[in-house]
Specification:
The protein has a five-stranded parallel sheet with strand order 4-5-6-9-10, with helices on one face. A three-stranded parallel sheet has the order 1-2-3. A two-stranded antiparallel sheet has the order 7-8. By secondary structure, the protein is of the alpha/beta class. The radius of gyration is 23 Å and the shape is globular.
Length: about 475
């Protein structure tokens, strides 16, 4: 493939196709701080705050987006996740792939990150790779994770943490003088995985970190509440759930659930109905607790994980072999949210869909449970995972505008493991401003820049700041 000769591809008005869009972005959105309320950054790495060794570690070490692109480009796995190839060799193979990512969001993200963190305008490709590798590394060796976050005006980061995590790295971070505040998120997938082979081991671990012997359902629930109190004391304001597959909400009696739990502790296999009863009970119990703690509950729904078992065994979890599922979600969400709402125990909620065919399902379902507790209490989340690209973001914004109130939207997040991913907020802000600008040009919105600018600022920053109410 021939080289890409264009320089300065990321211009000041990138994605901004009208004067109105340019004004909204540059005067209202551009300089706002970032609240990244869902990501997978390492709290340990933030606490240790050591410079990242090289751009390969920052970019490719855990980025399954790039891994998938490299595999699609025919790159050998040893240059993607292998342990015998050097950081530079892996970077050069990524550089080979970049020209083939045109019209994939990776091309935009790649160039935005080179520009914002390293002031590099050149397109990464084989004939620029060595120069860019050396230039980026010369900057990274002087940049700690805290400095990288500060450079992009990241005000809040919420990591994703198992209920048994001791949060010692969050404790260390809290003692440091970082401008970015870092809070844990209570990720509950393992609590629900009652049919997994390692579930009894996990329950023993949960008991150990709460000094409880867990033999009954009530003891299990007591241990969960102790962990929630612990997380709350360390600034946690969000829970999260992201297990794969279809979710069935079924009727249950607590007595039956107690028997099911004790049966599983004896390592007896459960039926599908028993698993559904246990999970339905736990969804409701946790939902009530989130309301009690004034946390925001998040549901990431629709992933079909670990499709390629060969790579799963070779690379491990998060190998980049997950995809969209086509699971029904409407009945599950309707029943769960309704049970919690009946007794006014429904917490603030953000639900994200991975399959775009369910955009309208999610947007309308969340609208069923809005009330006067808080404006925009029920949030249909931003384009997630395979949908956090230009087309997916535009569709989410347009659908939310049609089915709900875009003005109350809490905006974008990175959902990333990389400290170089925060230009995705810029990407979202530019797309948002361009959509509004196009509507003004077509006479669909009033040309009131001050009013529209305030709306943009709320979506990009202030709605999230007020919604989560971080300390």
């Amino acid at each position: 493939m021939s080289s890409i000769t264009s320089k300065g591809f990321i211009t000041n008005n990138f994605l901004l196709q009208s004067k109105v869009a340019q004004t909204l972005y540059h005067q209202y959105a551009k300089d706002l701080p970032i609240i990244d309320y869902h990501n997978h950054l390492s709290a340990q790495q933030i606490a240790e705050n050591k410079p990242i060794n090289n751009i390969t570690e920052a970019w490719l070490k855990e980025d399954h987006y790039k891994w998938r692109a490299m595999r699609a480009n025919g790159i050998e796995e040893k240059y993607i996740t292998g342990s015998v190839t050097s950081h530079e060799e892996k970077f050069l193979k990524w550089a080979e792939t970049v020209p083939y990512t045109l019209r994939n969001p990776l091309f935009h993200w790649n160039q935005l990150e080179l520009k914002r963190y390293f002031d590099i305008d050149e397109v990464l490709q084989p004939n620029t790779a060595e120069r860019i590798y050396e230039s980026a590394n010369s900057i990274l060796k002087h940049k700690t994770p805290a400095q990288l976050l500060e450079d992009l005006k990241v005000e809040v980061v919420c990591t994703t943490d198992d209920p048994t995590d001791d949060l010692r790295h969050h404790k260390e971070i809290a003692k440091l003088n970082f401008s970015t505040k870092v809070y844990p998120t209570f990720r509950t997938d393992t609590l629900f995985a009652i049919n997994s082979e390692s579930y009894t081991d996990y329950i023993n671990k949960l008991g150990s970190c709460t000094d409880l012997k867990i033999h009954t359902l009530n003891e299990f629930l007591k241990a969960i509440e102790e962990r929630m109190l612990f997380f709350d004391q360390h600034g946690c304001k969000l829970s999260d759930f992201g297990m794969q597959g279809a979710l069935n909400f079924v009727d249950y009696q607590k007595e039956d659930v107690a028997s099911i739990f004790e049966k599983r502790l004896k390592k007896i296999e459960l039926t599908i109905t028993e698993v559904d009863k246990f999970r339905s009970f736990l969804f409701v119990h946790l939902g009530k607790k989130y309301h009690e703690f004034d946390w925001v509950q998040q549901y990431h729904l629709g992933a079909l994980r670990n499709n390629n078992t060969r790579l799963l065994h070779e690379v491990g979890l998060d190998a980049g072999v997950d995809s969209m599922g086509d699971f029904p979600m409407a009945n599950f969400m309707s029943k769960l949210l309704n049970v919690l709402d009946i007794k006014n125990q429904l917490a603030k909620t953000i639900a994200y869909n991975l399959n775009p065919s369910q955009n309208e399902v999610f947007a309308t379902m969340l609208g069923n449970f809005q009330n006067s507790d808080y404006p925009g209490k029920m949030q249909w989340g931003s384009g997630w995972w395979f949908l956090d690209q230009k087309d997916g973001i535009e569709k989410q914004i347009n659908c939310l505008s049609n089915m709900g109130l875009l003005s109350r939207f809490v905006g974008m997040l990175t959902d990333s493991r990389s400290f170089l991913s925060f230009p995705r907020h810029e990407y979202f802000r530019r797309i948002l401003c361009n959509i509004i600008g196009e509507d003004v040009n077509q006479g669909l919105l009033p040309n009131d820049i001050e009013f529209l600018g305030e709306m943009v600022q709320n979506i990009c920053y202030f709605n999230a700041k007020n919604y989560f109410n971080f300390k």
